[in-house]
Design brief:
UDP-galactose 4-epimerase, domain 1, 13 strands, two-stranded parallel ribbon, binds nicotinamide-adenine-dinucleotide, Rossmann fold, 326 residues, globular, seven-stranded parallel sheet, Nucleoside-diphosphate-sugar epimerase
Length: 326
């Protein structure tokens, strides 16, 4: 018998790629999301369009035995969505509610293993003030002081999942994603994250042109290609390690350098105009000590390889969007 899985957030970026991975491994997969996949990236055997804040919708997903649940649904976006403060109530309410629902319904249906996608945003702001030396080892998360309400909700939900492990012996797995990027991710509209936004701006700019970057561009981040993220998630699920564990890259760089890297891929001379905008922490990098030790995992490709694929895909999207306008 094939293993069965539900992927929550299958209409989203990472969830869509995860569905494809599970299918390639022979799983029967049910995807669920409040919306269909924007780019048609969905090979799920069954795809339910439904709101996971509604417990009745969650219940209906379990009309057959389910071995594994992957909970990736969340009300989320890039800095322009998460760090302005304008969406805080929605982010906390929506994500907490669907986590409470999916965890409880999975328990009631004796799901064998459940994965929860947490975030690097759980780490305290006080350890991420120095752009060159941020601290994001898993055991530095307390005393807690995430810099966003999104991070607080992730921390609450991590604890929620851990209580289900403690009190109900549920097999929980928790990964803390660090800036995942790649094709078929949101690339415009305000919810896009840094790599997609930079690729879009460079794709739309003329050679010798200028693009806008929030802040002085010296804030640092690391970025993980989506296929690597999915591979790490699968490794974690196959292991007996509970987590939370970082799933990210240690190749940290300032945003200005990210722009230069994309400009080089595009073969364009691009100038940067720094403008005020929501920034998040000053520096952030994945610390992969624990995941190397527990799962023998590390990213297999450098950042520029993933960026080449992403830039190519976003260039195609920009061209398609221009055709529609014409
Ligand atoms: P995404 O926004 O593309 O996917 C999330 C999906 O959840 C969306 O398709 C959305 O429609 C769906 N969703 C939201 N509310 C829902 C509801 N009430 N009912 C059903 N579906 C609902 O985001 P992503 O980048 O694929 O991220 C997946 C998960 O990983 C999220 O939990 C996110 O917080 C976490 N994460 C992502 C990153 C990253 O860099 N992409 C970093 C850290 C953590």
């Amino acid at each position: 018998m094939n293993k069965t899985a539900i992927v929550c957030g299958a209409g989203g970026f990472i969830g869509g790629h995860l569905v494809n991975q599970l299918k390639s491994e022979g799983y029967w997969v049910r995807g669920v999301d409040i919306k269909a996949h924007e780019y048609g990236n969905n090979n799920a055997d069954d795809f339910v369009v439904g709101d996971l804040r509604d417990f009745e919708v969650c219940k209906a997903l379990f009309d057959r035995p389910i071995d594994e649940v992957y909970q990736l649904a969340a009300d989320m976006g890039g800095a322009g969505y998460l760090f302005t403060g304008d969406n805080d109530a929605a982010v906390m309410h929506n994500s907490a509610l669907l986590n409470l629902n999916m965890l409880e319904i999975s328990r009631l249906n004796n799901v064998k293993k459940i994965f929860y996608s947490s975030s690097a945003c759980v780490y305290p702001e006080y350890n991420q003030m120095d752009a060159d030396n941020p601290k994001c080892a898993e055991n530095t998360v307390y005393p807690a002081e995430p810099d966003s309400e999104y991070g607080w909700e992730k921390l609450f939900s991590e604890r929620l999942y851990l209580t289900y492990h403690k009190n109900y012996s549920m097999e929980v797995r928790i990964g803390r994603f660090h800036n995942i990027f790649g094709p078929q991710g949101t690339w415009d509209g305000g919810k896009e994250k840094v790599p997609a936004a930079v690729c879009r701006k460079v794709a739309q700019a003329v050679d010798g042109g200028e693009i806008e970057v929030w802040g002085d561009g010296k804030q640092t981040r690391s970025f993980l290609f989506v296929h690597e993220c999915v591979e790490a998630v699968r490794r974690l699920m196959k292991s007996d390690f509970l987590g939370p564990v970082n799933i990210g890259s240690e190749e940290m760089l300032p945003i200005n350098d990210l722009v230069h890297m994309v400009a080089k891929i595009a073969n364009k001379d691009i100038k940067i105009k720094h403008i005020p905008g929501p920034l998040g922490v000053r520096g952030r990098n994945s610390d992969n000590t624990l995941i190397r030790e527990k799962l023998d995992w590390a990213p297999s490709q450098p950042l520029h390889e993933g960026l080449e694929k992403t830039y190519q895909w976003i260039t195609e999207q920009v061209a398609k969007a221009n055709e529609v306008v014409i």
